[in-house]
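Reviewer comment 2.1 asked that we show a complete input and output for one of the modelled complexes. We chose the adenosine monophosphate case, as it is the one discussed in the main text.
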Amino acid sequence: VPDSVCIFCKIVAGEIPADIVAESDSAIAFRDISPQAPVHVLVIPREHHATLADMLAAGADITGVFNLATSVASAEGVADSGYRLVVNTNADANQTVFHLHVHVIGGRVMAWPPG
Ligand code: AMP
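Response of the prediction step:
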């Protein structure tokens, strides 16, 4: 998917609205439009990479994404109570947006393994 039609690239560019909760040089965090828990934030790299594997294969640094994700967990008040970071990849995991994103999910007790 080219950057020009990627919905998350449009959020990075400010071309479509999002409820942005945190930003850094390399990543931004915004609330999921269809939250599955009291805390459900997506953290994405500003750069377009379809999947985690693609991002790593490109030699890009994933650290900024995870730094922002843990920072969001603290700011949302779930760092101590607990939260889950999820990276869905491809069809079996129900990846629907092909711009790498880390789900930060918390605020309730979660089942393991996920369905
Ligand atoms: P995934 O299944 O891991 O690809 O998750 C994609 C997530 O993006 C879903 O949880 C959607 O609810 C969420 N989503 C899709 N479009 C938007 C949007 N414009 N703003 C915020 N979240 C979105």
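The helical segments are 7-12, 52-57, 63-75. We note this here for comparison with the apo prediction described in Section 3.2.
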